[in-house]
Amino acid sequence: MGARGGHENITKSFVARVRAATCAGATVKREPESRKYPRIPSDFPVIFKLGETTARIHSVNLGGGGLRLETSALPCGAELMVRFRTAKHHAFIQAKARVIYTLPDLGSGVEFTDINQEHLQDILKAIHGNTGNRRKAPRVPLATQIHIGDSMALALSRDLSVGGIFVDTKEPCSIGTRLDLRFHLTENDPVIIARGEVRYIVPKLGMGVQFSEVSSEDQKRIAAFVAQSADILPEPFSQAPTD
Question: Which of 67, 83, 171, 224 is a good FRET partner for 94, with 20 to 30 A between their CA atoms?
Fold first, then answer.
């Protein structure tokens, strides 16, 4: 995509041309009714190509469906090619994308329109590995058998908190699915009975389930278990990722 020096800043003439196009078009943010993937704050450079112009701008948010970029100078509907990596030791990710909104002082929302599935998996793994940094309640690992409805799934629960649980499964349920869960905190403890809702999925990794109904007794037992084990993982799970 050209020499590094050409990526450092958007030229003044390029900004002027793009701002003129943006002002002439719509700049209304489009909010999906239900977000398919969780989203996390991000701060890494994104190299993009718009027409014959190549530039580099930092990201503000990262999701499985796209990015928010630290610029309001992109015209709505513009087709881009983006290239980035979520960390210095990670491989580069490349995708075709489209600008879906531009808001002053907030940046531009970019939606992936064509992305390699392996690259998407890399993004989702990075998101799942970092969602804990935004949570307020402690999370702990839990290895247990989880009964879902009338079936039983052997699962390693990566995250458990008073707010929810992440279930390892290669066949996650759809977002919004309501589940009846039964699991043990330890081998000799009484079963925990909870109702929850799938809030997000990470393909080939599992699903995040937020508790919606738990008895006060079971909630106290979960809280005590989490408190005793909180030093294992320093950051939390509490609820499924939100905006």
Answer: 171
Residue burial 193-230, b: 16+ Cβ < 10 Å; e: rest: ebebbbbbbbeebbbbbbbeebeeebeebbeebbeebb
| Dihedral pair phi/psi, residue 230, rounded to 5° | -60, -20
Q: Please give the pLDDT value at position 13.
A: 45
pTM value > 0.70: no
Specify whether 78 is located in the same domain as 166: no
Within this chain, do residues 10 and 118 fall inside the same structural domain, yes or no? yes
CATH number at residue 175: 2.40.10.220
Indicate whether 208 belongs to any domain. Answer: yes
The one-character DSSP state at 32 is -
